[in-house]
Amino acid sequence: MKATVPYIEAKFDEYNALMFDGKLEKVPIELSNSASYVGQCTFRTKRIAGFTVGRYDLRLRISTRHDLPEEEIEDTIIHEMIHCCIWQQKIKDTSTHGKVFRAMMARINRDFGRHVTISHRLTAEQREEGLDKRVKPHIVAIVTFRDGREGLKLLPFSAPKIRAWDRVLRRSGNASDIKYYRLESAWFNRFPTSAAFNVFFADMSEVRAHLEGIPPLPISELV
Ligand SMILES: [Zn+2]
């Protein structure tokens, strides 16, 4: 089946009452056609007068690119709801799918007979079939956050846009390091390119494997 927004909203309410004691605040639900994930949580960060005032605009996205068994879609919604729970309660976890995430996941799987995993459950085959396999140039930013998490972002080939993006992220005070790479690759096609202030928390060991041997560049040499 392919999920719809009303379907996801109904599941969110159902699981919120059943698995999260009704504590989750409603989150805007969006559909996408992404080949790189089934479910994803995105948010923005904000800083006022030099102080980080937090993260905002949490959204839950489900990709309807693939026709998946209903149980997989349900488990994906639950997976993303665990992210929402940690995010909304401002819990510090050891990593994106750290100790807190895994403990919640284990409790839900045990108590409700679910099969939620830390991967987003797309099989390699499903992932590959939806991907554009042409080798293309990309500008990749690797961001290390002060809380230890790492993410990546694909940026457009525009020096002013990259500089503006870099400036805002550095001013937010949330990033402790940003490195930029320019490369030709088909693998990175799975991530969307934009100058929006969102970062993807992918499997960074896999991302790093695809950056091996490529030196980071200053912004002035990227475009
Ligand atoms: Zn996740």
Q: What is the H/E string?
A: HEEEHHHEEHEH
Task: Say how many strands there are.
Answer: 6
Task: Kindly report the CATH topology of the largest domain.
Answer: Zincin-like
> Widest sheet: strand order?
1-3-2
Number of helices: 6
CATH architecture of the largest domain: 2-Layer Sandwich
How many independent structural domains? 2
Q: Which radius of gyration do the C-alpha atoms yield?
A: 18 Å
How does the overall form come out from the CA principal axes?
Answer: globular
| Helical/strand content category | alpha+beta
Strand content: 15-25%
- CATH homologous superfamily caption of the largest domain: Metalloproteases ("zincins"), catalytic domain
User: Which ligands, by name, code or SMILES, are bound?
Assistant: zinc ion
Descriptive notes:
This protein is α+β, with helices and mostly antiparallel strands and 223 residues long. It has 2 domains: 5-127, Metalloproteases ("zincins"), catalytic domain (Zincin-like, 2-Layer Sandwich), CATH 3.30.2010; 136-221, no CATH class. 33% of the residues lie in helices and 24% in strands. The chain is built from 6 helices and 6 strands. It has helices at 5-19, 70-88, 99-112, 124-129, 159-172, 204-209; strands at 29-32, 39-48, 51-63, 136-145, 150-155, 175-185. It has a 3-stranded mixed β-sheet. A 3-stranded antiparallel β-sheet has the order 5-4-6, with helices on one face. A hairpin with a 4-residue loop joins strand 4 and strand 5. Helix 1 packs across helix 2 and helix 2 (70-88) packs across helix 3. The longest helix has 19 residues, at 70-88. It is globular, with a radius of gyration of 18 Å. The mean pLDDT is 89. The site of zinc ion has 3 residues, from helix 2.
